[in-house]
Task: structure prediction
Amino acid sequence: MNDSPAAMPDTADYLTELNDGQRQAVLATEGPVLVLAGAGTGKTRVLTTRLAHILTTGRAGPGQILAVTFTNKAAREMKDRIAMLLGRPVEGWWLGTFHALAARLLRRHAELVGLKPNFTILDTDDQIRLVKQLLPGSRLDDKKWPARAVLGAIERWKDRALTPDRVTPAEQAHLADGAILRLYHAYQDRLLTVNACDFGDLLLHNLTLLGANAEVAASYQRQFRYILVDEYQDANVAQYLWLRLLAQGHRNLCCVGDDDQSIYGWRGAEVGNILRFENDFPGAQVIRLERNYRSTGHILGAASGLIAHNRGRLGKTLWTEDEEGDKVKVRALWDGQEEARAIGEEIEALQRHGQRLGGIAILVRAGFQMREFEERFLTLGVPYRVVGGPRFYERQEIRDAVAYLRVVHQPDDDLAFERIINTPRRGIGDTTVRVLHQAARGQRASLFEAARRIVETDELGSAVRRSLASLTRDFVRWQGLGADTGNAELVGIVLDESGYTGMWQADKSPDAPGRLENLKELVAAIAEFPDLGGFLEHVSLVLEVTEGDPGDMATLMTLHSAKGLEFDVVFLPGWEEGLFPHKRALDESGVSGLEEERRLAYVGLTRARRRADVSFVANRRLYNQWQVAMPSRFIDELPPAHVEVEKNPSQFGRTQGLAEGAAVWPIQARSVAGGLRRRAPGDTGAIAVAEAQDYAVGARVFHVKFGYGLVTAAEGSKLDIDFDKAGTKKVMASFVQPADRAG
Result:
């Protein structure tokens, strides 16, 4: 039964600063409760106050409460806050992450699932090593299915609570004709043999334990009078089933989350868990926290209008009593370099007006976008940090690729040669490398030269000699290509012919596509330098810049890494179709992928306290090719009342010659299919741009990136142009000019 004002005085110290929605969520202690906590609405305060309230009123002792978080940091923060509320530390309760709590329960009953209480929990490296041990007997082609990809498939099954015997024929059909399922059986058997489990097993064994042992399940169902869950929208199927089992006793399950911030579907999160909460727990109360304490009115209005286009949501509208603030700025720019330059200039201007760099963030959809911003920050001398991963040139795949180029440029670079001698795998192990070092010292030669000589002798086995001979011949050939081949073409040849690109193409792990995108961005980066030596020197200087004292630094990170954070000013670049929403998400998941991408855009906007700037470019250099970019459909979905469109024509590129009063490009008129219509002159919700009708078929035109060409077709704001050198391209009419005006 819920607390009433008469039974529980509203003057309790921990209740006085709560708003009505927060207080309702704290006092609704009995029965299932879903707290829909929008971004910046104080969900952590609700969780900690609710726990303090349960303890203070004697409804349960610490050992009768199960409080689940997704990170150790969140668990520590919750524990500290409750200690401050109560004026004393609380001991003996079950507060922690899903994995930590599941491990604690499992160690008490390990024998019931075939383990000993001192079982080992394997990390990712240990898991991959175990899979590699099992691959030879699995009849799997380890080039098509490397260990990391196999492990990824197993982990996805575990996230969905599928033990090997529960994987259906349909589930396994597309995974090497069932070979991975057989390896899954062997993998689980091996774990039991060595008394170990992985993180997925912690929940999976719990489900087996509680499902097969009614007395054990009943004892925990009696024990946990109250269960609280943070970030419920991020729970996977196994976590959901575990919670549902434990909540069957008292049914006092309180889940706090935001369906509009469910952005981790790619790693197993199931937004359906929160959407069907009322069906799964009949009689559940749904309490919405909609008052936002973080962002200004225009930012909230823009974010709410955008997310309203999602159909798969329970619905809520954020509001604030604070000022309306600045509208969300939307800016069109010519290309990625211009975008980085413009944002860099804005950051410098903000600094001059007293804004701390620590309150500024650039949130990108894909990791490869960071490179141009990093380069710009280094040029400007703006201190920055990359959150959620290494800097661009510090990433494994970039360091590997640069190592190849270092050997092409300077064959005597032993450190670079040793780094890639067996990457991708060529059967050249540590023993061979030791022999090479010995030979190099004896001959006073480099490792590369020692390798060229040793393949003509019998010190090594025939297979290793063949691999080394092939590799050294490749490097000699690549060195010969340098004089007549452009930088970008050369790096593409090296990465393709070495098998390095193919290694990541064959890798089925979730991070492989991002690594490939980074390699393609490297190709684009090297094209900006006159020679290979100049590029390698630039990389060395970039890597020499270390973070040192964190101090006041701008933040560069992906949108996925930004969840839970907040900044005064947020820049959101790259809002273009194919990049955001990302083409891969649409191709693989269709409508659900689009809705998750839209939730990601919502998360990005709601990270901003005072200012949010969205930008897109007309041309994006992807995979070392210039591509005409279309604005993201999400830009269309931003409510005009909360958006300010920057109409400065020069921002499209300084050579465009766009006239004042030119035709306009609507922000709200693009259809999902990408069609455009003309707006009346003077419309404030538009960006200056020319129409295709201004150019007749057969007209000779000039494009700053593609050069001269003939118009072959014109429709709306787009032209088909047969360029003299670049071939046929579809471009925006605003980015060309009559040939007689060029130059």
Q: What stands out?
A: Residues 583-605 form the longest helix (23 residues). The chain has a mean pLDDT of 84.
